[in-house]
Design a protein that fits this description.
About 35% of the residues lie in helices and about 30% in strands. Strands 1-3-2-4-5 form a five-stranded mixed sheet, sandwiched between helices. The protein is globular, with a radius of gyration of 12 Å. It is of the alpha/beta class and about 110 residues long.
Length: about 110
């Protein structure tokens, strides 16, 4: 299987996603369309079996900034999170992003 990328492009949708994390973990991926590293990691994250909520930082800056505010973790791209109960249980940036770990944490 492969990831089902779902573009996250509104603050209301972000709030709903954090609320949904109380029922099951959710995956967030911040992606830069102008970064080669981000393109490579995007391809790797595509191997995750499940929904991956993607924020394109160039077109959804407000959502990207809100993720920083909600998690307390400084912005980077690429950047991946697994959110559970409204808090991050996984976070990594750049080549530290591990799709196997993301998938494992999203099943916990």
């Amino acid at each position: 299987m492969s990831a089902n990328f779902i573009e996250l492009d509104s603050l209301d949708d972000l709030d709903a996603l954090f609320a949904a994390s109380h029922d099951k973990p959710v995956i967030l991926f911040k992606h830069s369309i102008s970064c080669g590293i981000s393109a490579d990691i995007h391809q790797q994250v595509g191997a995750v079996n499940g929904d991956v909520h993607i924020v394109v930082v160039q077109t959804n800056r407000a959502v990207s900034n809100a993720i920083e505010a909600k998690t307390g973790i400084r912005h980077a791209s690429p950047q991946a999170f697994v959110i559970k109960d409204g808090k991050h249980i996984y976070h990594a940036t750049h080549y530290g992003i591990n799709p196997t770990e993301i998938e494992a944490k999203s099943r916990s």
